[in-house]
Amino acid sequence: MNVMDWRFLVTIIITIALGVVTIVLALKLARKRQPVWAYKTTKIIGLGSDAPPELKLTFNERLVSDVYQTRLIFFNKGNEPILKDDVTEGIVIHFEEADILRQPTILAMSRKGIEVSVKQVVRDGDNAIEIDFKYLDHNDGAVIEVLHTTSQGVKASGNIIGTNKIRYIGEFVPSYDRPLVNVVMRMALYVVMPIVAIGVLFWPSRKEEIPNESVYIVVMLVLLFYMIGLGVAPFIRVRRFPRWSVVKS
């Protein structure tokens, strides 16, 4: 394969790669409301099946057999703000067949200005909590703690103009940022990859100027693929939960 063939092949590869990056960025930057939630439930107190009947467990002078802690997060993952007036049906988290043992607690919120509040309610026969707010910009929301007895399931209900549903995104396990890794990846996308691509595209036309030309081309192509992978990764592997959601136990 001659130099011109290699240039054509590399041009096609770069065109496809840039097309993929453009599509990913367009989807990421699309203006939309996207309310999401997640939760994790942990048993903190309980009586085993082999406990003697004389053993009693109380919580705030209330007789219980077990106590569970559920930490949940609700936030706007989209880029379009959600206003209080956009909520046409209250945002409610249902604890099916469970008793809520005290008023829910807000452990963290993105900022005070959003004025998140939460209260215990009963909806559709379930003990539940209702979340209220003034507005939610991108990644605005709150982490809430609920103490309750055994639940047969946790689900969300509500309606917000401009959205199909409040989407559940899995177990709530906050993670920390890796800023240095993100910087390196973006440098690879915006600096190193274009330099390598230009070097390959403007290959000297005379073989004698570069020894072992085929090996050199293979090395450059491998490096190009590697840099594309590093560059696209930050846009595909997005943090599931915002930085402010990390709550120390």
Q: What would you note in describing this structure?
A:
With 249 residues, the chain is an alpha+beta fold. Helix content is 30%, strand content 33%. It has 3 helices and 13 strands. The strands form 4 sheets. The protein has a 5-stranded mixed beta sheet with strand order 7-11-4-1-13, with no helix packed on it. The chain has a 4-stranded antiparallel beta sheet with strand order 8-9-6-12, with no helix packed on it. A hairpin with a 2-residue loop joins β2 (57-59) and β3 (62-64). The chain is elongated and about 80 Å long. The N and C termini lie far apart (62 Å).
Short description:
The chain has helices at residues 3-29, 179-201, 213-236; strands at 35-46, 57-59, 62-64, 66-76, 82-83, 87-96, 105-109, 117-123, 126-132, 135-136, 141-148, 153-160, 167-171.
Q: Could you state the order of secondary-structure elements as H and E? A: HEEEEEEEEEEEEEHH
Tally of DSSP helical segments: 3
Helix content: 25-40%
Helix/strand structural class: alpha+beta
Rg, rounded, reads: 27 Å
Report the count of strand segments. 13
End-to-end distance? 62 Å
The CATH topology of the largest domain, please?
Immunoglobulin-like
Q: Record the strand order, biggest sheet.
A: 7-11-4-1-13
User: What is the top-level CATH class of the largest domain?
Assistant: Mainly Beta
Number of domains: 2
CATH architecture of the largest domain: Sandwich
Poorly predicted parts: none
Sheet of most strands: 5 strands, mixed
Proportion in β-strands: 25-35%
Shape: elongated
Q: Mean pLDDT, nearest integer? A: 78
